[in-house]
Design a protein that fits this description.
443 residues, alpha/beta, 4-stranded mixed beta sheet, 22 strands, globular, disordered C terminus
Length: 443
Amino acid sequence: MRRVSDGDVRAAWAAPRAAAPVRATVTGPGSKSVTNRALVLAALADGPGLVRAPLRSRDTELMAAALRALGVSVDDEGADWRVTPQPLHGDAAVDVGLAGTVMRFVPPVATLSRGRVRFDGDARARERPVGELLSALRQLGAEIDDADRGALPFDVVGGGGLRGGTARVDASTSSQIVSALMLTGACWEHGVRVEHVGERSVPNAPHLAMSVRMLRARGVAVDDGVPGRWAVPPGPVAARDEVVEPDLSSAAPFLAAAVVTGGSVSVTGWPRDSCQPGAWLPGLMEQFGATSYRSDDALTVTGSGTVGGIDVDLRDAGELTPVVAAIAAVASGPSRLTGIGYLRGHETDRLAALACELGRLGAEVSEEPDGLRIRPRPLRGAVFRTYDDHRLAMAAAVLGLVVPGVLVENIATTAKTYPRFVDDWLAMLAAPVDTATATGVAR
């Protein structure tokens, strides 16, 4: 992992401490996962469509730029984005940044182009697992030039489409491998059948359900009746307008603020039926000792002033791990987070990073092959390194509420999925509070 420099320390953001239980109403950004899937499907559709209330962040802007590089018209001048499909061309370069959705969703699209498409990204992106996707595309007839690295940089040589058929892959490191093949599969001559051959299940099942739901909404038939197998027949992808729901995982630090300070936070626009992993949050907060309440248009989480430890399998909600680990670090008892070994291949090795940074603040954290054990100890202020990982930065902000002196290195990395995170965080703390009940759980 990258070492923090003296310059990084000087530029670190002083995470504000809560002077009282947090009481606020928050409206979060749109979902990155929905926005980027919607952009891909709109680019492959049989007519123009709108992506309404999209997330505007580094990851989604990289997706829009990638599709433009292939010839798709993406007009983002208004509040909504208008996507007009065009014949795809090659001889293009795609910058994936550190976005897993761009790195995995766009190469299958590039097989529909005519010409060579070069993919590369941030230094860490070259370490993220993509070899299984490239292998699957080769099985389906694609020409891939990756110098046998199974990693970025690589070229997809588009020939105007693929024959398609069956791809056998080990998707135990990322559900995005399966989603990537499904999203483009209807555009290939024989469609696609994906068979997962790994010993462990595909993680983040909610994201797979999201891909299936969004495909079916566009008239694409998806057969997911057999566990570990997905089939998409060839056929048109219908044009439609897509309304992007709020990003529930980005609500995690705000709901965590209610838990760790003994306050109450409402998140507006919370959907009643969502395929996002963030839909787990009410139950997770309740396991920590909080209560949750659903109104017509919001979810409210209220902390009790005491945080208990938890034992939870997060395999299907791994992106929540950093914030869950932050809450666990200020709990009254130990916690065990399991099912998340695959997070070693995310924006950073999230397990190693959390063990290191929580330990720097004084927590006792043990890495396990598939998770973390966290034993709370009195915490102290220190620099919390983020390794260019937006979720780690959000976790550090949560800790700063109850631990004085937490300095967050590169808080700007939150722009990956939540460009206004700092502004919304400060606004939450500026909301009126009941100082007579300032209990909190600072350790």
